[in-house]
Protein: Formate--tetrahydrofolate ligase
Organism: Ostreococcus mediterraneus
Amino acid sequence: MTTDVVGVDGATVAYDFGAHKLTNVVSPTPSDIDVASAAEALPIKLVAEKMCGLGEDDYELYGKYKAKVSEKLSTTLAGRKSTTDVGYYVVTAGITPTPLGEGKSTTTIGLVQALQAHTNQRAVACIRQPSMGPTFGIKGGAAGGGYSQVIPMEEMNLHLTGDIHAIGVANNLLAAAVDARCFHEATQSDDALWKRLMPAKKDGTREFSAIMFKRLKKLGITKTNPDDLTEEERSKFVRLDIDEDRITWRRVVDMNDRFLREITVGEAATEKGRTRKTGFDITVASEIMAVLAMTTSLADMEDRLGKMVVGPSKSGEPVTCDDLGCTGALMALMRDAIKPTLMQTLEATPVLVHAGPFANIASGNSSIIADQIGLSMVGKGGFVVTEAGFGADIGLEKFVNLKCRKSGLKPNCAVIVATVRALKCHGGGPPVKAGTPLDHAYTNENVDLVREGMCNLVRHIENTKAFGIPVVIAINAFPTDTEAEHAVIREACIAAGAEDAVLCTHHSHGGKGAVALAEAVKKACEANQDCKDFKFGYDTDLDIKSKIEAIAKNVYKADGIELSAKAQEKIDLYTKQGFGNLPICMAKTQYSFSHDQNMKGAPSGFTLPIGDLRLSAGAGFLVPLVGAFPTIPGLPTRPAYYEISVDLESEKVLGLS
């Protein structure tokens, strides 16, 4: 059975997607790295041209199995074909997870494998690039699992095409620029600063660099000849006058390192005693990562990078990347990162990997550009399945209120992934800890515990339906589950308003194990083609506090919020600076609807503490930190790196999972 693929020249070519079904499934399922190592990946050139309809000018090869695709395809690909119709848009979210994860990425991959290889529907998965912090910390990898994963998985989980590295360097360049500028302004006169920032040429003339005109415009100076500036104008131009006690821009590293949460910089004698306290975030929490996820074009990215605020001046004005003159340099570092990476699943379904913001401390979704490209690739009747991080209270809420608000895209359906294990945890089961064997409550049948935990999944269903999105539940099956436990889940889900609740075995069987899910998703999408009921969770014209309260009360079911003095000060500052109309990106634990990870199930009636507020002016949102929430993780007692190594004979990476 073949499907028509529209090529770069507009011609239609028949292609048999079913030719790539898995035929070598082994039981019991081997380790993820063993499954991936045994797979025979197609050359990515074949995936790009035969399955995605791309031409040679649309992509750049990064080895044999990865390619960067042009960001321009987000606007040009649909117009190149005979129709501007795009495919169905499906978002995958999850139940409030345990520290072990509930298989959301695996389900995303299993679903697109089922759609394309087993039901002959055009499909593309859009997922985030994994951070190496969790890879070496707890998870040991994040490319799906079992027979539903992205390959080559070792390349996916490690450096991939260098995007996270580029973000880290760009972020830290800006951090270095901030401290260097503060140092030079503190140790030089206005005249010395002017002569160094505007060095005279051999003929004695001076010239503004292109980026400097943005600061001149901000200051209301229209002169183009540096020699025409008055002494007062020169002083305003050279002095950003950053308030060093309120610098908000932090350095980043793509690793779990708790000892970098708070540091002192400037300790060397050469810095002349100009020390200050600051800290590191994990790279995927950088605002530059969020900019990458939210941007729609190269020009839009330049504008967003330039608007990033590093802190206020002593007079309270926002100091930006444009003010520091860094925007062009950051663009040079990010030029290739804006292009999504094309990979494939075990069953040769195309996967676009782009951006990697955590959902608990950042926007938690893959890029708008990747989703737009995917929708154009699959065409009318095809499917793009994009993943939202962690539970639906975090990732899906941000997908709606941040990503869709910016992109204008509307989802036809949401898939929420649930497991018996997570439901038992929310029903009162013993704590689940990474690296510790599961209690017998999780490996033996306990229908009552599952039933008690359904309150968590039901709330996620209700919250998603409140956004006007139909819900299909994917029950990610484990070998220790029982039919009675699955029956309780399905019954409660249907009663709560889910379109369907489907048992999935894609981890063990690949796309074949998610065919029923694919059929349920197709049915839900076809019944919601116009997305007429879709709506956001709040109006951005509300004041900052009211928007935070809307999420806390309507999604988390808190009674209200409590602002620390620091958070209130930031709200007042950002409102005064003109950022009060931005949407909200909550930073909180992923393990509970509340601020307390030990409050399982569906807690309500609590007060949500807001400890601090950060501004991401370039990304376009405000970030309330719930409680004292860390923005760089720490390593556990027994990190995943104990299992990771390289086979010296085959040179293959071992131990990723």
Residues 35 and 146 are 7 Å apart (CA to CA).
